[in-house]
Specification:
Elements (H helix, E strand, L loop, with lengths): L37 H11 L4 E4 L15 E4 L41 H11 L4 E4 L15 E4 L15
Parallel strand pairs: 1-2, 3-4
């Protein structure tokens, strides 16, 4: 259990840089740590923002802990124990339901069904720079939980092509 090793969770309603106060320079996101060894990433996070504790999760990280904690940064390792993706920004919407009124950025890509997974990843990240497209294992019967506002799960068929409409969340 995560709570046993770390300071008590301070609940908040924001994630990442949305937690910053106007004019604040302390970082709340670390995209540059993708690919960095997980314990080194933890050290960098904690040195650059003394208000948070880096919490290394188990490999895979398909389920993150709820509630959102203002004083924790969830670190999700890849199989080589490096930070694989930016921390999940939990949301309660999927696809175009996440779009704010008047917003023109893409949240759904139905035209990518049948496209090779890595090509789809490039297209998604180019058309919505706020998200990371995450290729899943072939089959991917169930998509990861929770919903992440900064991720698009890519479910491949047996030929490595997009099988399910990619959407934010």
């Amino acid at each position: 259990m995560v709570d046993a090793k770390y300071p008590p969770c301070e609940n908040c309603l924001c994630t990442g840089n949305t937690c910053k106060s106007p004019g604040e320079t302390t970082p709340y996101e670390w995209p540059e740590l993708i690919g960095v060894e997980i314990m080194k990433a933890k050290t960098i996070v904690e040195r650059s923002n003394p208000n948070v504790t880096g919490v290394p999760l188990d490999s895979g990280c398909m389920t993150l802990v709820d509630p959102v904690c203002c004083n924790r940064v969830w670190l999700c390792p890849d199989k080589k124990d490096a930070a694989q993706y930016p921390p999940c920004e939990i949301c309660h919407c999927i696809g175009n339901n996440c779009r704010s009124p008047g917003e023109t950025i893409r949240y759904e890509w139905p035209e990518l069904i049948g496209v090779e997974i890595m090509k789809a990843k490039i297209i998604i990240e180019r058309t919505n720079p706020d998200v990371v497209a995450v290729p899943l294992d072939i089959g991917c019967i169930t998509l990861p939980d929770p919903l992440c506002c900064n991720r698009v799960w890519l479910c491949p068929d047996k030929k490595g092509r997009v099988r399910v409409k990619p959407v934010v969340g």
